[in-house]
Amino acid sequence: MSPFRRVPPRASTTPVFDRTGRATFWPALVKVAAMPAIAIALLAWFGQPALRIQYWYHGTSSAPVYDRCLYLSAFAGWHDRRVTPFDGDDPCPVIDFLPITDWTFGVLP
C-alpha cells in the first residue's frame, strides 16, 4: 500500500433531516386528491357509463329497427330504454352514457 493513497471516507448511515421531505409531500398529495376529483367531474359532464345487455327490434337483422334497449349501468343498475323512430342513426349503442339523477346513488327512496 502506498503511503500517499487516500483512504475513502466512511459511508454515513445517518439520514439527513432537512426540508426536502416536506417539499415533496404536497405535489404527491395534489396528485392523489386530483384523481377522484377528475373522476367525479367526468361523471358529472358525460354521465354514468352503461353497457347494453339486451335489445329488441323488428325488421330484418341486416337493417333492424330497434324498439327497446336494456342497459346495465355502473351505479344505478338496470335501465330500460324505449326507442322512438327519431333517435338518430344508432339508437342502441353498445356503451352509452346515461344521465345522473337523484335516483342514481340511492339519495331518494
Description:
By secondary structure, the protein is an alpha+beta fold. Helices cover 24% and strands 29% of the residues. The protein contains 2 helices and 4 strands; from the N terminus they run H-H-E-E-E-E. It has helices spanning 20-23, 25-46, and strands at 48-59, 64-73, 77-82, 95-98. It has a 4-stranded antiparallel β-sheet. Strand 1 and strand 2 (64-73) form a beta hairpin. The mean pLDDT is 78.
End-to-end distance, in Å?
86 Å
Order of helices and strands: HHEEEE
Give the C-alpha Rg. Answer: 30 Å
Strand order of the largest sheet: 3-2-1-4
The major β-sheet equals: 4 strands, antiparallel
Task: Categorize the overall geometry.
Answer: elongated
Could you tell me the mean pLDDT? 78
Strand content: 25-35%
Number of strands: 4
Q: Give start-end ranges of low-pLDDT stretches.
A: none
Q: Helical amount among residues, as a percent range?
A: 10-25%
